[in-house]
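Forum > Structural Biology > Help requests

Title: Can anyone predict the 3D structure of Penicillin-binding protein?

Hi all, first post here. I have the sequence for Penicillin-binding protein but no way to get a structure on my laptop. I'd be grateful if someone could post the structure tokens.
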Amino acid sequence: MSALRRSVVALSVAALALGSLSACSAGTPDPAPVADDLAAAINSGDFGKVQFASSDAAAAAKAQKTAFGPMGDIKHQSTVSAVAEDEEETDGVKTATADITTVWDVDDSDKDLSYTTKAVWEFDKDAEAWKLRFDPSVLAPELEDGGYLKASYQAADRGSITAAGGKKIVTNRPVIRVGIDKTHTDKANWEKSATKLAKLVDIDEEQYAKTVLAAGDKAWVQAIVLRDDSTREVTDAQIHAIEGATYQEDEIPLAPTRSFARPLLGSVGEATEEIIKKSEGKIKSGDQVGMSGLQSAYNDTLSGTDGIVVSRYTKDNEAQGELFTAEPVAGKDVETTLDMDLQQSADELLEDADSNSAIVAIRPSDGSVLAAASGPVDSGLNTALQGAYAPGSSFKVISALSMLREGSTPDSKVQCPATTVVDGKTFKNYDGYPAAKLGTIPLSEAIAQSCNTVFVNQGAEIGGKKLAEAAAALGLTGEDGTGIGSVLGSVPDDSEGTTQAANMIGQGVVQASPLGMATVAASVQAKSTVQPKLVVSPEPKAPAKPASELTEKEAGQLATMMGEVIDHGTLKDLNSLSGSKIIGKSGTAEYDSERNAHAWAIVAQGDLAVAAFVEDGDGGAQSAGPLVKAMLQAAAK
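Reply #1:
Sure, ran it for you. Structure tokens for Penicillin-binding protein below:
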């Protein structure tokens, strides 16, 4: 129960006991009902039920609107705390006085603004009615004609988003707000200057010119906010060369660079009408709030509580005194597991990507997400954590686990024909599959060379349920524990026929995110099922353990086969890297009749697992392979 409602309940109880708080003499009616009518009028602004000895309902309503309007959406409740007929008459006129207590629910704390005013009625013998001697001080203590109460806010310092160990990622950084000051140039230049400035900062010229012209004659109209650091390409001289163009220095929460984990971290901006409405009074016009990503998901944590001062003002806008003060409470930091160097490396690799792409790096030993980059940076999509695509042959690690659980080993002999048919549908190996690796080969070689037909032919025997269990054991279909609403993957347990056959090679109806496939590689490297984590404070709800978990023996067998992918298989370009053993798997998933394909590569080395994805690629090894190689090299520096 809010403090306001508690106050209202308490005061309502007092109102019920008015028999002990009110009194009237013989021949005059009880003043309690008219006091209640006044309290109701102060609450609603409708004084139609109030009779006046001075003023009238319209004037009182105007005074109430003037007095309380600047308080905005802050709710108030007025109640009668005491009422009684005065013992002595004034100039032969009987009077009654009431105490009106008004409570303002100023913020979310238990601290409210509460004050008591006095209202006086005189008894009109002819009308046999109590009539109010209205004065603005009935509304608030010492309030004068034309006076008002106003709430002023002091923005709380926004919390930062930090990397592992508390190193700040998003924090206040210098910017310049570039715009046109209409008072700095003649009216004849406004449109021309606006168009020139819009062209300089690369925004819509026509729209900005319209905005400038529509603003007041003395307005300063912002065009854009630019980082004020070494990356700023628009110079002071270029801005000042345009008549009326100027800039204001400011600081806003920003990441180290424009591209740094941009879709993951999100942005901060002025609250929209929709956000304000959904907040149910917590957010007001002009507030800076998280608009997307972590900034939005953890806005309540990061934003803190604004300070507020309620003051009484005269009609000439002079402050007379503070009635309520609450200091701002700074927001709290949101700590992530990100490694800033690895994230920067991943961002740079994808910043200007030709199609939607992603790189995710995980520390297998504890599931920490060290990097989650999505490209190109201007797409705004969080492909790394929320994209869902057919994983292609990278999924064969899961299919291989399902076969190991049915008794196969890396040395088991399997048949790899050039083509195979399931329920009338023909499946074949990828173009360029080495002919020398057809026929009878070890299961490990089927993984190394990525033979499709081996796994397609095992689909019916494995079945949907066992394939789904293998996916769960490798962390692909677990509950999200990142704290940011991530997608891992989906593997239906009831697929049959050609759908199940296609599922075995990562097509059909199975889907995975780059995070999900990085988790698969991490689970193999960790020798147990990994559950990725990203936000560590405030701590999100822990995900449930999967029903099927990876064993150390199973992980060892998978690692052996994935090691051959690097040694002499589809990712052999990585075997030139120094350091500990590398394991991996590439994948290509055609997604239309023109054979356009998603490209995948997953690898692990030491305590690092990486997945790379390119939506429109030439092949897993060709398009995604260089990305995972670059990440391993970056980690080794």
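The longest helix spans residues 452-473. The chain has three domains: 3-145, 161-326, 340-636.
Shout if anything looks off.
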